[in-house]
Design goal:
It contains four helices and 40 strands. It is mainly beta and 587 residues long. The chain has a single domain, classed as 8 Propeller (Methanol Dehydrogenase, Chain A). A six-stranded antiparallel sheet has the order 11-12-13-14-15-16, with no helix packed on it. A five-stranded mixed sheet has the order 1-34-35-36-37, with no helix packed on it. It starts with a helix and ends with a strand. The structure holds calcium ion (CA) (2 copies). The site of one calcium ion has 6 residues, from loops. Its cofactor is Ca(2+); pyrroloquinoline quinone. One of its GO terms (cellular component) is membrane.
Length: 587
């Protein structure tokens, strides 16, 4: 009897799959390059390799969105309800989405039925700094590829969820993990690593997407050797940034951080992978005089060789954990009839930067938050003009040598903007930046590197700046630096933005709402409460002539863990774990 019911379940599943037209995902490089304009699928993180998070779909628009309603919701189940920061992918009627604790689900886009689930078997000793989150998969050929909390890349059969290949990217016992969605560039899967709070050495690595064979490795701390694999042989590929110790004292470059924890974007025009790097380790900046390259920077990397083409450092000699990982989004604009090949990024440090994406030259920069205390501004090259009084003091200068002077710095280390990706609308020419207004008391303490242990040398308490809001969704003009409109939210914003040709901008809130705004005015046009806080990134696609919007719901991430007084203020928010999918009623 048991055997019979088992085989019945399998054949029923096969029948269900063929009935709903579910077929094997066969994603090509062309599919990924064209992702933004092909509205029937979402096959890249960022709705296109440039990460603009803009869709040309307009059936759901400022006039019709009021009628939008959920058509299905799917629960991730289990007890593993922590932060859900994933961006779903959609291909041929199947949604591929990750969940907390390195889980992957394939779901029928029409019904919300589960097709398969994969649970990574994680060791006890994983060391994620900032919740057990995951930000999504990459799709290539018939594979679903994602990174795990124990720093592995896993490729699953898109049809069955069975493991096709698995690679260890780094040793989790040293503090490495992977939470970002990998990216696919010309048949290569490119990933970064997390672990900047444990004194790891950041790196970007490329693997053959079909086989998992390593192709190149590029460390992101000055002085470390890069490698390229030719015919299976490991060959030295140049020291990152020249010889060790130029911008680091002593041996500190050996545990220098600069984690590439948010992955990157790809610009086909310049054939560049743009990947950001986190804080230099440890946080206590008095231990490491110098610029500490390539920490808190944006890097342009050649996807074919792993060479660093240029770098732009947003916070040299960072002393506030202003990780420079935020997405660098390519866009073109006209200046006096000339097309400028630009890219923009909004940094944890509170400044937004517009760069020339062909060479990394600084074009302009401006604050995108109301208050910045650690710097007085940016110089003509985009380098911060420090307010030295706002650098937390040297513990060696204190009486007992145990605690340096504390400062109240703004923004807090969780940033004017954290991981949550902004969107760029090709219609309005504006960036929609999810930001937060908060400050912190921060001080330095002595510390020493120990493999696999926290390596901060700092203490801190995050504090709100106002009673009525922390989160601010801002429409920013990259040509003028002006804020065009804003929406203020009580809780910190922690989810990604979606812009559409329907003149709409969507974002989720920790209070649970998926909200839609008029892209030109900021007027709230839609809201629906998903039952738990949203810290994921919404997507949109078209199926059988109808436009769909999906977003993952499930409160968590870094804020409840690290948010100090802010975390106390929002401790009533409930956890969850589900996908919600919306559309307009037929006719
Ligand atoms: Ca597409
Ligand atoms: Ca950090």
């Amino acid at each position: 009897m048991k055997k019979f019911s088992g085989s019945f379940a399998v054949s029923a599943l096969v029948a269900a799959m063929s009935l709903s037209g579910v077929s094997q995902a066969n994603v090509t490089d062309k599919d990924i390059l064209q992702d933004q304009s092909t509205v029937e699928d979402v096959v890249s993180n960022g709705l296109g390799p440039r990460g603009q998070r803009y869709s040309p779909l307009d059936k759901i628009n400022t006039n019709t969105v009021k009628d939008m309603r959920p058509v299905w919701s799917f629960s991730f189940g289990g007890e593993k309800q922590r932060g859900q920061e994933s961006q779903p992918m959609v291909k041929d009627g199947v949604m591929y989405v990750t969940a907390s604790y390195s889980r992957v689900f394939a779901v029928d886009t029409k019904t919300g039925d589960e097709l398969w689930q994969y649970d990574a078997r994680l060791p006890d000793g994983i060391m994620p700094c900032c919740d057990v989150i995951n930000r999504g998969v990459a799709l290539y050929d018939d594979l679903v590829i994602f990174g795990t909390l124990d720093a592995k890349l896993v490729a699953l059969d898109a049809k069955t969820g069975k493991v096709k290949w698995k690679k260890t990217v780094a040793d989790y016992k040293e503090g490495y993990s992977i939470t970002a969605a990998p990216m696919i560039v010309n048949g290569k899967v490119i990933t970064g690593v997390s672990g900047g709070e444990f004194g790891i050495v950041g790196k970007a690595e490329a693997y053959d997407a079909k086989t998992g064979k390593i192709l190149w490795s590029r460390p992101t701390v000055e002085g470390h050797m890069g490698y390229i694999w030719k015919d299976g042989k490991k060959v030295e590929n140049g020291i990152s940034g020249g010889k060790p110790g130029q911008t680091w004292p002593g041996d500190l470059w050996k545990s220098g951080g600069a984690a590439t924890w948010l992955g990157g974007t790809y610009d086909p025009d310049t054939n560049s992978v743009f990947i950001g790097t986190g804080n230099p380790a440890p946080w206590n900046s008095h231990m490491r005089p110098g610029d500490n390259l390539f920490s808190s920077s944006r890097l342009a990397i050649d996807p074919d060789t792993g060479k660093i083409k240029w770098h732009f450092q947003t916070t040299p000699h960072d002393g506030w954990d202003y990780d420079g990982v935020n997405e660098l989004i390519s866009f073109d604009y006209k200046d006096g009839g000339k097309t400028v090949k630009a890219a923009a990024t909004a940094d944890r440090n509170g400044f937004m930067y517009v760069l020339n994406r062909t060479n990394g030259d600084f074009i302009r920069g401006f604050p995108f938050v109301d208050e910045i205390t650690w710097a007085k501004g940016l110089d003509k090259n985009g380098r911060p003009i420090y307010n030295e009084e706002m650098r937390p003091g040297n513990p060696s200068a204190s009486e007992d040598g145990k605690k340096g002077s504390s400062v109240h710095a703004v923004p807090a280390f969780l940033g004017g903007k954290n991981w949550m990706p902004m969107a760029f609308s090709q219609d309005t020419g504006l960036f929609y930046v999810p930001s937060n207004e908060w400050g912190m008391d921060i001080w330095n303490e002595p510390t020493a590197y120990k493999k696999g242990a926290a390596y901060l040398g700092a203490g801190f308490t995050i504090k709100p700046l106002t009673d009525d809001h922390i989160g601010v969704l801002r429409a920013m003009d990259p040509k003028t630096g002006k804020e065009v409109w804003r929406y203020q939210n009580f809780s910190p914003l922690w989810g990604g933005v979606l812009a559409t040709a329907g003149n709409l901008v969507f974002i989720g809130t920790p209070e649970g709402y998926l909200k839609g705004f008029d892209a030109k005015t900021g007027e709230v046009k839609y809201q629906f409460n998903t039952g738990s806080g949203i810290v994921g990134s919404p997507i949109t696609w078209e199926q059988d002539g109808e436009q769909f919007i999906s977003v993952v719901s499930g409160w968590g991430g870094a804020v409840p863990l690290w948010g100090g007084e802010v975390a106390k203020r929002i401790k009533h928010l409930n956890q969850g774990g589900s996908i919600w999918t919306f559309k307009l009623p037929k006719s």
